[in-house]
Every structure is written in structure tokens, then in C-alpha cells.
Design a protein that fits this description.
Layout (H helix, E strand, L loop, with lengths): L4 E4 L2 E4 L4 E5 L6 E6 L3 H20 L2 H17 L1 H12 L3 H25 L3 E4 L2 E7 L2 E5 L5 H15 L2 E5 L6 H13 L6 E3 L4 H10 L5 E5 L2 H13 L4 E4 L5 E4 L5 H13 L11 E5 L3 H12 L20 H16 L3 E4 L17 E6 L4 H4 L6 E7 L2 H8 L4 E2 L2 E4 L3 H8 L8 E2 L13 E2 L2 E2 L4 H6 L2 E7 L1
Parallel strand pairs: 7-8, 7-10, 8-9, 10-11, 12-13, 12-18, 13-16, 15-16, 18-19
Antiparallel strand pairs: 1-2, 3-4, 5-6, 6-22, 11-21, 14-15, 17-20
Length: about 475
């Protein structure tokens, strides 16, 4: 159930004025309404965070770790509620919501409980003591595609560092953010350490990014909005952490297990209905194996049938909104217009889904690097298959975008794949199907962002360095 309030200073404060409707993307039905926060709401939240900062920053790391561990346990206990909420407001299949949208954030929170207790906040360097201390009040602005994971990936390391947080979640998925605020309260974090203001980006988001009481802005979302937030924060010389867009390459080298590479690659693109910034949306295959890869991809994507996300058997749900559906459909139409070969899916909603914001899972072949669908982030269940001629050409094509967030390489052995991966201009590369590691740094090169999340590197984003000479 939605709170008609903001969470500020350890309590839910009723908000008047305009509200934001939250709708179920599978049924288009109204789920609830949340407040459309204004600049004065952001100001109240920032003031609460500043008041709580000295006490929380001075709390011994072991005690901060205990509170974060308690938060992780609350998230685990609320697994089913979290999964059902994300499925309702995002449209992710329930099985995926449990495994990724609920379990992963709890695991990440637990990892920061461990890090807070073990991290060396001081070290001796010659005749100096180098001290790591919290950067201050963090303004966190999070996206709708992985709503709870992105909240935890910002809030948990900030808590571990001794920072306080003001969160402005995405308008499409604010209900799970409210669940997180309830979890923080239940876990016993001091009042003001975490604060939540729901609202629209141009008003609440802008007010948070530009607030003089915010010491760092952490944003995940589109590159265009990231530029604006960076400019707003930069005017006040405050640091930013930006996790932005991606157009990641899945490179299959000759001698690799082609069938496995294509199967895993298609699954990666279809996960979360393609609404994943790190999705491997470009499949690169050598000329000799190209048509076989196209056939394999068409066969693999046929298993992703759009359906009711509350059905345990569903693997592909709707997109988050009518706007997102129209955006993705526009890209599919553009791919056809530019001459790409449509081998699966295409524009238009699935025939058996008259309601909901569904898109047909789509695969394009004969895609060339200059095509729009090979350059721009589509953010939907759309795969482009490109051909390369030799390893040097594969490196060129893989790096031929403004983005550099993630990627994958498949080869006959790990050493060959790793050698290729080191030449990719991207922040994270999976080698022969390597598993996601929540302790490894995540973040991008080029237009994919600034800074890193997760693990020790994610904690470092919320610390500043002071040296004391003796």
C-alpha cells in the first residue's frame, strides 16, 4: 500500500498537493498514488540528513555495520512482499523479481555490513596517518529498472561510510522505495540517516542535485539526465557518481561454444524485458559462423513469450510504461527502415496482449555499426547481430559506440577471452559466461558514467581523504 507521505527524519510526514499515479504495466490498472515532492520537501529532508550526519559519522564502524546487517535481515524477511511489489509496478516476472529484485539487494546490503566492519578507514603512510571519512550528505537519484537494487547500491555503502542519505526514486517505481524506508525504520537506523522524497525529476530531482546541503550526488539513469545532473552539481563544485547508459557488446570469437554464447546472450538481453543498462544488446560474430548464430538467436528468443508477470512460468513481462513501449517500438521501426533484417519479433504489440505495455522480443540481423539500433540504447528486448572480419575488426566494432558499461567475450579458453576483454573500452566484461559478482566494481567508461558501485570501490565513492602529518 502506498504511503501518502515522505519519510523524513525517521517518520512519515504527510504531504499535500499533487500526487503521482503508479500503474501496473501489465494491466494498466492504478496501484496507488504517492506525493509529488517539491523543493520545500527536499529541503526538509536535507536538513534532517544534515542534523543526523555528525552523530552517524561518529558512530563506530562496527555499530554502523550492525545496523546495516539488521537492514539486510529485514530485506530478506520481506522478500515476497518486495518481489510482489516490483512485479506489480515494474512488470518483471515474479521469479525474476524474487531472484534479482529482492535477493540481490539483500545480498548487497549484507556485503556492506561486512565491509563496514572490516574496512581500514585509517592507514599509516610514512610519517602520516591517512584518514578516510564520510563525504557528508548524499543525494541519491535512482532509476525504475532495478529500483531496489539501485537504492541499496547507493544507500548501503553511504551508510557504511558514515554518510546520511536523501533518496529521490523514479516516478514509475516508488512503492518499493517506500518499502525500503519501512525496512530502514524497522532495522533501527537513527532518525535522519535515511530520508525519502518521492517526486518528478525536473522538480524534486533538480532540487536535490542543486541543494547546497548535499555534498555528493549519486545518480543512475540516462546519459542525457546524467549530463544535466553533472552540470548542476558541478556549478557548486560537488562530486557526482554517475551510472549511465550502455550499448554492450557480446563478442563470440572463433572456436568458442557458439550455441552457449548465443543462448546466454539472448537471455541476458531479454532479462527484465531488456530494461537493463548493462545488457549485451550487440552480438558480434565472425562471418563464417554468422548465419548459424542468427538461426540460434531466432530459436532462443522464441522461448521468451510475453505473458502475465505474476505467472510463475512467465519469462518476459511488459515494459514499465506506455512511453517506454512507444520508445522501443520506434527503435524497432527505425531498424527496419535502415535496412536491418528482422528475424524475430518486430513492431506492434503481441496479438494476445491487448492490454499492458508489451513489446515483441526482437532480433535483427545484418546490422552495421553505423545503424541507429547499433549505436543508441534501446532499453527493451531487442538484439542486434553484427558481423566482424578478424579479431582486429571485432575490437573496432565492439568499441565503436560512445558507451562502455559492460560486455562479454567467448573464446576457446579463458586466456584468449581475457586478452580480448582487456582491449574493450568498457567497465566490466564477463569471460565465457562468468557469473555476476556483487563485490566487483560496476561502472562505465566514456558516456556510461563516472565512478563505481558495489564492493570496496563502491564504498570509496562515499569517502574523502585527510592526511595527518606527525
Amino acid at each position: 500500500m502506498a504511503h501518502d507521505a515522505h519519510y523524513i527524519g525517521g517518520a512519515w510526514r504527510e504531504a499535500g498537493g499533487e500526487t503521482i499515479e503508479v500503474r501496473n504495466p501489465a494491466t494498466e490498472e492504478l496501484l496507488g498514488r504517492v506525493p509529488a515532492g517539491r523543493a520545500q520537501d527536499v529541503d526538509a529532508a536535507v536538513r534532517a540528513a544534515r542534523e543526523a550526519l555528525p552523530g552517524w559519522a561518529a558512530t563506530p564502524p562496527a555499530q554502523r555495520a550492525a545496523r546495516i546487517a539488521a537492514l539486510a535481515e529485514v530485506l530478506k524477511a520481506r522478500r515476497e512482499e518486495i518481489a510482489a511489489t516490483v512485479t506489480a509496478e515494474l512488470g518483471a516476472p515474479l521469479s525474476f523479481s524474487r531472484a534479482v529484485h529482492a535477493d540481490l539487494p539483500a545480498a548487497v546490503a549484507g556485503s556492506y555490513a561486512t565491509l563496514a566492519a572490516e574496512y581500514a578507514f585509517e592507514e599509516r603512510v610514512g610519517n602520516s596517518t591517512v584518514h578516510q571519512e564520510p563525504i557528508g550528505v548524499v543525494g541519491a537519484i535512482t532509476p525504475w529498472n532495478y529500483p531496489l537494487h539501485q537504492i541499496v547500491a547507493k544507500a548501503a555503502p553511504a551508510f557504511a561510510a558514515g554518510c546520511t542519505v536523501v533518496l529521490k526514486p523514479a516516478e514509475n517505481t516508488p512503492l518499493v522505495a517506500q518499502l525500503f524506508a519501512d525496512a530502514v525504520h524497522e532495522a533501527g537506523l537513527p532518525a535522519g540517516v535515511f530520508n525519502l522524497v518521492t517526486g518528478h525529476g525536473p522538480e524534486a530531482g533538480e532540487a536535490l542535485a542543486g541543494h547546497p546541503g548535499v555534498d555528493l550526488v549519486s545518480f543512475t539513469g540516462s546519459t542525457a539526465v546524467g549530463r544535466r545532473i553533472g552540470a548542476t552539481a558541478g556549478a557548486a563544485l560537488k562530486p557526482v557518481a554517475l551510472e549511465l547508459g550502455g550499448k554492450s557488446a557480446n563478442v563470440v570469437l572463433p572456436g568458442a561454444d557458439l550455441a552457449k554464447a548465443v543462448k546466454v546472450g539472448v537471455a541476458n538481453v531479454m532479462a527484465n524485458s531488456g530494461q537493463t543498462c548493462s545488457a549485451w544488446t550487440r552480438l558480434l560474430v565472425d562471418a563464417q559462423h554468422y548465419e548459424e548464430a542468427v538461426e540460434l538467436a531466432a530459436g532462443a528468443v522464441a522461448k521468451y513469450v510475453p505473458g502475465d508477470p505474476t505467472d510463475e512460468a512467465t519469462r518476459l513481462g511488459p515494459l514499465v510504461s506506455a512511453r517506454q513501449r512507444d520508445r522501443v517500438t520506434g527503435y524497432i521501426e527505425q531498424g527496419v527502415a535502415e535496412g536491418a533484417r528482422l528475424v524475430a519479433g518486430g513492431p506492434g504489440a503481441p496479438e494476445d496482449r491487448p492490454r499492458g505495455w508489451y513489446v515483441r522480443p526482437t532480433v535483427f540481423a545484418d546490422v552495421t555499426p553505423e545503424m541507429t539500433i547499433a549505436q543508441e540504447e534501446i532499453f527493451g528486448p531487442v538484439l542486434s547481430i553484427l558481423k566482424y572480419d578478424g579479431v582486429e575488426d571485432a575490437v573496432r566494432v565492439a568499441n565503436d559506440t560512445v558507451y562502455g558499461l559492460a560486455g562479454a567475450v567467448w573464446a576457446a579458453d579463458d586466456a584468449e577471452a581475457a586478452a580480448f576483454a582487456r582491449r574493450m573500452d568498457t567497465g566490466q566484461v564477463d569471460i565465457n559466461g562468468g557469473r555476476f559478482n556483487p563485490l566487483a566494481p560496476f561502472g562505465g567508461y566514456k558516456h556510461s558514467g563516472i565512478g563505481r558501485e558495489l564492493g570496496r570501490h563502491g564504498l570509496a565513492e562515499y569517502l574523502q581523504t585527510k592526511s595527518l602529518q606527525f
